Amino acid sequence: MFDLKKIKLLSLSGKSTWQLESDNSETFASAGFDIESTTDAAISKLDLQLNEQAPPLPYGYLELHFDFTYNNQQNVFCNGFQTWTESKWFSPFDKIPKLRSILKPVWSHFKMNNYGDYDSLHYQQSALHSYHFTCVKIEDEYHLIASLNEENGFSIFIHRGDKNQLVLRKEVCPDNEDETYINLVYLKGKDLNQLYDEYFSLQGIEALETNNITGWTSWYNYYTKIDESIILDNLQAFATRKIPINTFQIDDGWQKSVGDWLPNEKFPNGMGAIATAIKKEGYASGLWLAPFICEKDSSIFKERPEWIRTNAAGKKVVAGYSLDWSGQFYVLEWRNPMVKIYLEKVFNTVLSEWNFDMLKLDFLYALTLGLDGRTKGEEMHDAMRWLQNIVGNKKILACGVPLASAFGKVAYCRISSDVALKWEDVSLSTGIRYRERVSTLNALRSTINRALLNHKAFVNDPDVFILRDNNQSLNLEQQKSLYFINQALGSLLFISDNIAKYNDSKMELYLKQFPVRTKKVIDMQATKDHGWVVLKNRKFHYLLAFNLHDTPHSISLPEGTWTNASGAQEHEINLAPFETQILLKTKKAVPQLLYSSAHIFPGMAIKKLKTTPGEINFKWHKDVRVKESELIFQVPAEHESYVVNGQVINSEDWNGTRVVRYVGDME
Question: Considering the domain 213-415+450-518 in this protein, what is its CATH number?
Answer without folding.
Answer: 3.20.20.70
